[in-house]
Structure formats: C-alpha cells, structure tokens
Amino acid sequence: MNLVRLIYASTISDQFVVDDIGRILKAARVNNKAINVTGLLSFNREFFLQCLEGTRQDVNNIYHKIATDPRHKKPEIIDYQEISHREFDSWNMGYLQNTESLAELIYQHTKSISFDPYKMNGESAKSLLLDIRDEIKQAESQ
C-alpha cells in the first residue's frame, strides 16, 4: 500500500464560527479512523495548517472535501509526497490549541509572531507539525 502525506493551509471563511473547530475535530477523528488516515491539525483562529497521512485515494478524497468546505477559503497544498512511514500514527487527528506553547513553536519555525502558513515551504511546515506533535505527546504524558 502506497502512503502519502499531504500538508495544506487554508484560511477560515466568514461562515466559520468558533464552535466549528470542535465539530471539525470530532468528525475528522471518527471519519479518519474508519479509513486509517492519521494526521494533525493546527489552528490559530485565522489559519489552518493540517497534515493528512494515508492512502493516496483516501487523503485525496479528504482534501477535496476540505477544499469545498464553506468554512475554509484559499486552500493551498504546501507539500504532497509518498512516504514510507507515518509521522502522526498516534492520532486520527491530533490538535494543539492556540496556546503560548504553540505561539513559541510558530516563532521558532517562522521567526515571526504572526502565523501565516502560506509563507512556509513543505519542509518547514512538516518540521513545525512534528514539533507540535511532540508538544502534544509531552503534555499527554504529564
């Protein structure tokens, strides 16, 4: 089975409301588990940065749903590649809230206090998401 990793950014639309993040996570966790897609979502009340890992068909199908979801606008693929192993295999959809620790990680990777994932390349976006993954794991173990 060929696995792929897709990293994309999008901007929240005017139709997005704060409670939507909980609904998005709940649906993603249920739906992704059913088809063995893993990943992580980062959100800062303006932008989404998300990684999806799974079969090419499943990841593509999910991305197409996201790209047509009225809560997102300007979806843009930052990185897409075949992979030999998953980096986010612990979660059907991991998530780190917009906290001080997330702000610190964003600054480390972008050297900016304002987060704009559209300015990131694939490697920097993946590196940030891996550090977010590690931050979540550390918080879960405490």
TrEMBL record:
Superkingdom of origin organism: Bacteria
Stretches that traverse the bilayer: none
Ranges in a coiled coil: none
Domain BLUF per the UniProt entry, residue ranges: 3-94
UniProt-listed InterPro entries: Acylphosphatase-like_dom_sf, BLUF_domain
Classification via PROSITE patterns: BLUF
GO MF entry, a single one: blue light photoreceptor activity
SUPFAM superfamilies the UniProt entry points to: Acylphosphatase/BLUF domain-like (SSF54975)
Name this polypeptide is given: BLUF domain-containing protein
